[in-house]
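Page 37, continued from 36.
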């Protein structure tokens, strides 16, 4: 039975994996005009952009920039999501995943606004407006970082084997160290990675688990 459980993928995780992969291949294989429409309407744009729509807070987490981006997010979803869906149950797991993803998008929009305000003092209004139209975010990373946070809270002493460097570490310390690295990288800026979306996913995950615990609706 234990061996079967390790192979079996619970329904929400399986469906999320399928949807993300299908959307990615649709982005790669559909006609250029259709792909452009998807990128324009499903990526998360800054709210001062003409391309921003509220639904992008949901759709952006099913899009990915390239295969590597997709692979690592889906690997983490598979690795941590299977266990957490068993822990939480499918319905609560889906709620948790989506709230972390949407919350991560909100935090990233806040980071865009801070950048926008800082640019206003250094560049012309036209240049800043072009920047506001150009920036966007895609990827399941915010939701996945929420899963990482949940795993660290629910299974704090489980060991995680890192790839680089190849050492074992307790989940709770892995979460703390990874979160600190994301914060430092976010403060440094640049790199084309939405570090504050990652932190936002962790923050919303922490708040949601604390809320459930306070209401005695979650017991770990």
């Amino acid at each position: 039975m234990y061996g079967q459980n390790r192979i079996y993928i619970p329904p929400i995780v399986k469906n999320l994996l399928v949807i993300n992969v299908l959307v990615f291949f649709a982005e790669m294989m559909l006609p250029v005009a259709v792909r452009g429409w998807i990128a324009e309407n499903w990526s998360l744009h800054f709210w001062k952009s003409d391309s921003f729509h509220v639904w992008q807070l949901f759709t952006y987490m099913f899009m990915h920039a390239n295969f590597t981006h997709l692979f690592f997010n889906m690997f983490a979803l598979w690795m941590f999501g299977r266990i957490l869906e068993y822990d939480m149950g499918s319905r609560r797991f889906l709620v948790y995943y989506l709230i972390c993803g949407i919350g991560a998008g909100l935090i990233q929009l806040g980071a865009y606004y801070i950048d926008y305000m800082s640019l206003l003092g250094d560049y012309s209004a036209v240049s800043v407006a072009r920047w506001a139209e150009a920036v966007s975010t895609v990827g399941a990373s915010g939701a996945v970082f929420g899963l990482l946070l949940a795993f660290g809270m629910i299974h704090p002493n489980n060991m995680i084997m890192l790839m680089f460097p190849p050492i074992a570490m307790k989940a709770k310390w892995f979460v703390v160290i990874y979160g600190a690295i994301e914060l430092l990288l976010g403060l440094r800026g640049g790199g084309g990675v939405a570090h504050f979306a990652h932190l936002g996913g962790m923050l919303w995950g922490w708040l949601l688990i604390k809320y459930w615990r306070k209401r005695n609706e979650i017991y770990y």
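The first helix runs from residue 2 to 7. Flag for discussion at group meeting. The chain has ten helices and four strands.
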